[in-house]
Specification:
mainly beta, five-stranded antiparallel β-sheet, 13 strands, 10% helix, six-stranded mixed β-sheet, 37% strand
């Protein structure tokens, strides 16, 4: 299947309608979306202040120990706020999911986790004509602007995602 991108601006509550995400190292705040054949890869650097519910000792920070103990629950929380949705409104499950702590090898159990990388990989269903990306990893009342880069082969499209904007991706 050959993939084509057709973009259009749509009003939406935190939805980016898009395609594949590209890998990116470090703590870049941009949402990376890579299109590679029939695969979508998303990568994003998330500040852990969005994860205050997982601060089990209520000291105002998420320690490496707290993160390690709650990593599966944190992954589930992320998956409820970041999801690839097909043209029928169904969620496409990620076949690969990881949330590594940025600079983990430099941290002890009591150190504060400041950022995690959110990495998801999806297979695009063969009958998919359009995809949407649910992206609500920030509080709706925050005026948080998220830069993004969509990579398809050698083409790169940059923009800024807000809670009030979405992009449309047509596949095929």
């Amino acid at each position: 299947m050959k993939t084509k991108l057709i973009w259009g601006l749509i009003g939406g509550a935190g939805l980016l309608i898009s395609s594949l995400a590209s890998a990116h190292k470090g703590h870049d705040e941009a949402l990376r979306i890579a299109l590679e054949g029939e695969e979508v890869m998303l990568q994003y650097s998330l500040d852990t202040h969005q994860l205050v519910a997982f601060d089990s000792n209520a000291d105002g920070r998420l320690s490496v120990r707290e993160y390690r103990r709650q990593a599966p629950a944190i992954g589930d929380w992320i998956d409820t706020h970041l999801a690839l949705i097909d043209h029928r409104g169904g969620m496409i499950p990620a076949y690969f999911s990881d949330n590594p702590v940025t600079h983990f090898h430099d941290l002890s159990d009591d150190d504060t986790v400041s950022k995690i990388r959110v990495i998801r990989r999806y297979k695009v269903p063969s009958d998919a004509s359009a995809l949407r990306l649910k992206f609500v990893l920030h509080d709706a009342d925050e005026q948080h602007l998220v830069p993004y880069a969509i990579v398809s082969g050698e083409k790169v499209r940059h923009g800024t995602l807000t809670h009030q904007a979405a992009q449309l991706l047509q596949v095929r």
